[in-house]
């Protein structure tokens, strides 16, 4: 989607490398710093800080924020970490956006605990802060949370996997995210809850962190197969990790007899469900998170009323092989609502 914000290239340079709003070449307004943002128009400014700028999930989130900003007539500043987990980059982005005069910041925290001091400082400066997708720890470090219920998303695929295995003995591999990231823990715990087992259950024969990366997902699956060659159920934090697992399983000739379930609902992942590489996924809606966040900041700017608490932006189980007792939609629905 083409850019719809009115942030100048000059402002982008002034805010530093952490602010990703476009190139820093010619054609700017000649502004020398954040105070010049918006050309003195008095336009409401909203900041969006994602974990990265390349992950399709966050690309779609940015598109949602841009569309909402254009429709609402607000100015959007966007930023991202250099990699998933780049807390320092996000802290810098928060500080720069506060200096630029944003009324609200929407953020997907890379480190749910480490980002808290920066967010509290922003709030003390009068900026409303909304977490998108992932909560902070503690959750009340932000004014509000607009997100998928990641515990529920995990629970849906856990219920699906349990029903699909139909009482067969299982050996489960969990391909997780990384320590200290709330979204990863919530999805993992939700899967276990949906499957009806507790952490440490003997049916869990291997657990590996993947960072949500396809190559690391493949390596993790290879490691798990070395440890337990007869794995027959694989939970993955997201679809890139799931596709990495599928590649490893296919290399061993196991791709047709291992059930893979995942979370996210991106277009690539939904197509992988359609092709049978992934049995089911829980689809979430990043565009809605960002749209609702921008609207909430505008409401705050106009009325002083802050968003509060948790807003569930929804999750849908997507599979072309439905199971009894677990509500789902087919991939036709999934492809109509996917992202990436």
From TrEMBL:
This is Fructose transport system substrate-binding protein. Residues 46-302 form the Periplasmic binding protein domain. Belongs to the bacterial solute-binding protein 2 family. It holds the Pfam family Peripla_BP_4. InterPro entries: Peripla_BP_I, SBP_2_dom. SUPFAM superfamilies: Periplasmic binding protein-like I. It is found in: Cell envelope. GO terms for molecular function: carbohydrate binding. Residues 1-23 form the signal peptide. Keywords: Signal. It comes from the Bacteria. The keyword Signal applies. GO terms for cellular component: cell envelope.
